[in-house]
Amino acid sequence: MGGELATAGPAVRISHLRVKRGRRLVLPDLSLEIPRGQVVGLLGPSGGGKTTLMRGIVGVQIVAGGTVEVLGRPAGAPDLRAKVGYMTQAPSVYADLTVTENLVYFGALLGVAKGRVAEVIDQVGLAGQAGDKIANLSGGQRSRASLAAALLGRPELLVADEPTVGLDPVLRASLWQLFRELAAQGATLLVSSHVMDEATRCDRLVLLHQGRVLADATPAGLLASTGAVSAEEAFLTLERQAPQTGPGQTGGAP
Amino acid sequence: MSPVRTFATARRVLTQLRHDPRSIAMVMVVPCVVLGIVAWMFNATPMVIDRFGPMLLAIFPAFVMFLVTSVTMLRERTSGTLERLMTLPLAKADFLVGYALAFALLAAVQAVVLTAWAHWVCGMDVSGSLAGLMAIAVLDAVLGSSLGLAASSVARTEFQAVQMLPVVVVPQLLICGLLMPRDQMPTLLQWLSDAAPFTYALEATGDLAAGRGWADAAPDAAMVAGFVVLSAILGVVTLRRRTP
Fold this sequence. Notes:
A: alpha/beta; 2 domains; six-stranded mixed sheet; 10 strands; B: about 0% strand
């Protein structure tokens, strides 16, 4: 599977990434490594830079500086496109097509085998809606269709932006179980969430606040180092300790 | 580029159209209604439809296809599907050519329907070949959709994309010779008119309608085809995988 892609080393290596959106410096200077074969939770309040970081990793974000390496290649390199799955926050599927029609198209671009479409539909629990137009599905069903599209190519790295938003607890649990299975098969997953109780399901947590990494640790390590009893409490503790970006300060390198 | 991915894209766009029969009907019917109104207004003087009919055949399919293409690309942006596609192994040329193929098919049907309507229902008589006129109308419609693709690639935001219609199409309508003979325009506008794709679309149909034959129409048709290729290249070059 690897081809000329690196098979050792971290799945993602980011150093001194700097991203501006408009006049706002969303990521002032971010460095981070994401180990392979793990489910890494990207947590933090909205506006903290989670989506921007993910867009940088899949290679659709214009960056102002720094480097992002994915599987040993620069992010967005053509040979990465079949290896990295991206599930955007808003479901990015064609609303006027059925679930199956959407997946058949994305599957054709990835060159996957015919049976794969039915497989991913099953994985996300949409077998009953396979023939329905996306426009007629509920919000949670749409986002699962979008996730199915990201799973089609059996990506080595799956980047999922808030995949569990709007899902009931049962579905949420089954998606996390799916993520665990994928990691067990060797895939790396970067999953963002602003629901802190999902943190316990990850191998590793990255807390992002105002474009800075507040913490990068295992859930147990995070609790131990902050003396907190929950990820939420740990985050609040860290946020209080973090140097605040005052008004008028555009946030240079720390 | 990969033919598999190009055709997969064309097939996907056609499937979307098939799910929306009302839009297809409007693409076919609206130009016919407008042409019908013109014919009706000047019922007493049939030379009006004979003269303006071919002009409308040149402009309408191009205008409508530009609009349809821009709106479709706009939806592709706002739904986030364009961003997804840009993370997938799909060449930008595959994407745009796939779209162009699907819309060319729609455009061809539209142009044929409109020409047939103009001749057999509205009583438009031309001295030249009706089939040739149809062929040019199809080419003009393809021009409209490839200009639409290029314009929406150049646009960086949805708001810019919407404004491409007044920016790209309306000035061309003014100076292409539809409203005023080109040789009566100020010199500067004549030069701009020389650079406008619609000018050649109009001249090609004008030549054929006047019975001047292919020898006169062919260079203009070639110019239109050239603009199709040029705008396709522009679309591929300006479409960006990375966005702000």
